[in-house]
Amino acid sequence: MYASTQFFWRFTESSLDFMNSELFTLTYGALVTQLCKDYENDEEVNKQLDKILFAHALPVFPLGYNIGVRLIEDFLARSSVGRCQDFRETADVIAKVAFKMYLGITPSVTNWSPAGDEFSLILESNPLVDFVELPDNHSTLVYSNLLCGVLRGALEMVQMAVDVKFAQDSLRGDNVTEIRMKFIKRIEENLPAGDE
Amino acid sequence: MADDVLFEFLHMEMVSHIYKEQASRGEMDKDRATCVSALEGMGFRVGQGLIERFTKDSPSFKDDLDIMKFICKDFWINVFRKQIDNLRTNHQGTYVLQDNKFSLLTQLSSGKQYLEEAPKYLAYSCGLVRGALSNLGMDCVVTAEVSPMPSCKFQVVIQKI
């Protein structure tokens, strides 16, 4: 009645990589689509992807942030970067090591503020938006907002409070995608991390 | 080229988000089914897309068994980084795919702990398989069962028209 079969296989290196990256990209797309269905407006979706604190704190479920606080551990375990001396070093590690490791791209670090507390990451290409087009009724959706949450969550785990947002978005018509990162302060005490 | 771990983290967050969402809306009774079907639906769309991209240059498959072998080998390797350990069929439209170390469950537990939570983490994958098969011309129902973790069996039942 039931027959059991075992297999051997062969596959090429390139086809393995090809499909893996698409799995993440397509899954992210399905998630954003689901969020757009669940919430009435793009603002709400943008919030869910990142996490923004408001004085009247409606409960928000911080997707990007939660991923960030875990991803940092994976990153520290797999890369061999030590403690960064200053924000400039942090910027370089983010662009040249972290982005390369997880998304296979190396954004450039530019537009430093005179005080050295703010910079931009310029992404020539954004893997999250392969195959994606924003429909007209979602023009305010910050599709890749997850990235902002991830960066904030990860840096908070290494005692840095930062503000991260998209300054330019190729999905919404700009030439490049620009993420603006601003150092707010060093987190001194051991605050319990995670959701409210 | 996105790293494997990104998908795993994203998947964990998605499951957690969908369930928290339902809990906060206070509809506790129908929430389980809705959550599972939301995750399964997402997996379905992604499975369809993935299989399209992956097989656009390959020759067509000879028959259903050929398709299932493809799912067990190439598809599973690409999505879950290993192949299916065991495939069984009754040659009448039912297939059971056994994965002894399912990548989305290895982080959860390696035994009986959290057994009741496992279905949440399998819904998306069931959808992936169903979506992939659907675009290959096979309409089916995909369910999964675990025992003990991280081993699980996906059951594919082809729907006769």
List how many beta strands of chain B DSSP finds: 4
Largest β-sheet summary of chain B: 4 strands, antiparallel
User: Which structural category do the helix and sheet elements of chain B fall into?
Assistant: alpha+beta
Mean pLDDT of chain B: 88
In terms of structural class, how would the helical and strand content of chain A be classed?
alpha+beta
Strand percentage of chain A lies at 15-25%
| CATH uppermost class of chain B | Alpha Beta
Largest sheet: spatial strand order of chain B: 1-2-4-3
Give me the strand/helix succession of chain B. HHHEEHEE
Task: Order the strands across the largest sheet of chain A as they lie in space.
Answer: 2-3-5-4
The global form of chain A is globular
Main sheet summary of chain A: 4 strands, antiparallel
Q: Please, what is the average pLDDT of chain A?
A: 80
List segments of chain A where confidence is low: pLDDT < 50 over at least 5 consecutive residues.
1-18, 52-61
3D shape of chain B? globular
- What is the architecture of chain B at the second tier of CATH? 2-Layer Sandwich
Report helical residue fraction of chain B: 40-55%
Keywords (chain B): Endoplasmic reticulum, Golgi apparatus, Neurogenesis
Protein name (chain B): Trafficking protein particle complex subunit 6B
InterPro entries (chain B): NO_sig/Golgi_transp_ligand-bd, TRAPP_component, TRAPPC6/Trs33
Main location (chain B): endoplasmic reticulum
